[in-house]
């Protein structure tokens, strides 16, 4: 029996329900917020209000995508889950190097050393100091996904050891992997690298690939066995909705079992609670109506929102044991 690891404990994949596959429900300081105050999503009360609104439309689970030392706060993620009843999966891993700066410790460690840090987040609990310094206090709140980031066209020399560390952690624990694809590009190179490192690609999600509206590219990505995470559906403005177009193609190609949906809403201006648009309800109201109008009915939406993320975010391998929910 496999399981999904949430901030309040392990649950069965069937308990996830409607899942947003790449979110930012807490960003609590760190370099991103210093660079742009729009990233400040540290207010649990406000984010709980936003989540409750989406939960009223059926949201069951969010997968947070802010990894080590970039604004992650495990205690706040757990509090958010307790307050709202929405399952939250917290990440370990590292984001793109631009969120750390040139002198960050992560540039000076080996893949094995990184893998030990990632593994401890998954098996023991996320550091209360978020790996921002040498003193580690584990919270007991465990990571359920590894987030890593590639660069334009694929993993750079800096990214490669981080991907190798993620792969090593996956081999040790079965934890799923969520990647950032810069501009939607480089996803084939990422899947190739992770596959070469022995990762089960059915537990890998390649994010933002719907930035590249190219049917052939998405067929190739699906053929790797990895999952495609589309999160651009509200960002097309006056242009035709490329995310919707890709979903129509994937359904026609019989590949809609390979796609999961998210919003990647990392800025205050996307949230109603801060006066922004379209709000966290978007995928379940506005975009679901667009899907319905395009002929992608209830059974397709169930696959995208429920069935696909449940398989993706389950730990790989059958060794997992469900542990009691911890709070
Ligand atoms: Zn993101």
What does it look like?
The protein is built from 10 helices and 11 strands. With 327 residues, the protein is α/β, with parallel strands linked by helices. Helix 2 (44-55) crosses helix 3 (74-84) and helix 4 crosses helix 5 (159-173). It is globular, with a radius of gyration of 18 Å. The protein starts with a strand and ends in a 15-residue tail after the last helix. Residues 22, 24, 65, 264, 266 line the site of zinc ion.
SSE order and pairing:
Blueprint: E1 4-6, E2 9-11, E3 18-23, H1 31-35, H2 44-55, E4 59-64, H3 74-84, E5 87-89, E6 91-93, H4 111-123, E7 145-149, H5 159-173, E8 177-180, H6 187-196, E9 204-207, H7 215-223, E10 227-230, H8 242-252, E11 259-261, H9 286-293, H10 298-312
Parallel strand pairs: 3-4, 4-5, 6-7, 7-8, 8-9, 9-10, 10-11
Antiparallel strand pairs: 1-2
The site of zinc ion has 5 residues, from loops.
Roughly how much helix do the residues carry, as a percent range? 25-40%
Question: Radius of gyration from the CA trace?
Answer: 18 Å
Note the main sheet: 6 strands, parallel
Bound compounds: zinc ion
Order of helices and strands: EEEHHEHEEHEHEHEHEHEHH
Number of strand elements: 11
Average pLDDT reading: 95
Stretches where pLDDT is under 50 for at least 5 consecutive residues are: 318-327
Briefly characterize the structure.
This protein is of the alpha/beta class. The chain has helices at residues 31-35, 44-55, 74-84, 111-123, 159-173, 187-196, 215-223, 242-252, 286-293, 298-312, and strands at residues 4-6, 9-11, 18-23, 59-64, 87-89, 91-93, 145-149, 177-180, 204-207, 227-230, 259-261.
């Amino acid at each position: 029996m496999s399981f999904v690891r949430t901030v309040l404990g392990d649950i069965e994949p069937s308990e996830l329900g409607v899942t947003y596959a790449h979110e930012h429900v807490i960003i609590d300081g760190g370099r991103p917020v210093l660079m742009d105050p729009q990233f400040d999503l540290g207010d649990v009360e406000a984010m709980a209000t936003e989540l409750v609104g989406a939960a009223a439309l059926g949201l069951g689970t969010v997968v947070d995508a802010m990894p080590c030392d970039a604004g992650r706060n495990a205690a706040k993620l757990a509090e958010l889950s307790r307050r709202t009843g929405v399952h939250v999966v917290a990440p370990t891993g590292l984001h793109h190097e631009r969120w750390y700066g040139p002198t960050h410790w992560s540039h000076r460690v080996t893949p094995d050393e990184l893998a030990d840090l990632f593994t401890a987040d998954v098996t023991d609990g996320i550091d209360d100091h978020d790996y921002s310094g040498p003193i580690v206090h584990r919270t007991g709140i465990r990571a359920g996904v590894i987030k890593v980031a590639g660069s334009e066209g694929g993993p750079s020399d800096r990214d490669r050891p981080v991907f190798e560390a993620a792969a090593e952690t996956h081999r040790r624990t079965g934890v799923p992997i969520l990647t950032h694809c810069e501009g939607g590009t480089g996803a084939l190179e990422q899947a190739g690298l992770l596959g070469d490192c022995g990762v089960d690609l059915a537990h890998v999600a390649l994010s933002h690939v719907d930035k590249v509206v190219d049917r052939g590219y998405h067929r190739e990505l699906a053929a790797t066995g990895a999952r495609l995470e589309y999160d651009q559906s509200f960002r097309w403005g006056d242009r035709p909705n490329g995310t919707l177009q890709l979903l129509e193609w994937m359904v026609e190609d019989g590949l809609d079992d390979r796609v999961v949906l998210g919003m990647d809403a990392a800025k205050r201006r996307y949230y109603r609670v801060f006066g922004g648009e379209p709000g966290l309800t978007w995928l379940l109201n506005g975009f679901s109506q667009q899907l319905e109008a395009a002929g992608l009915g209830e059974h397709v939406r169930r696959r995208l929102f429920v069935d696909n993320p449940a398989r993706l975010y389950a730990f790989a391998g059958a060794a997992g044991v469900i542990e009691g929910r911890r709070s």
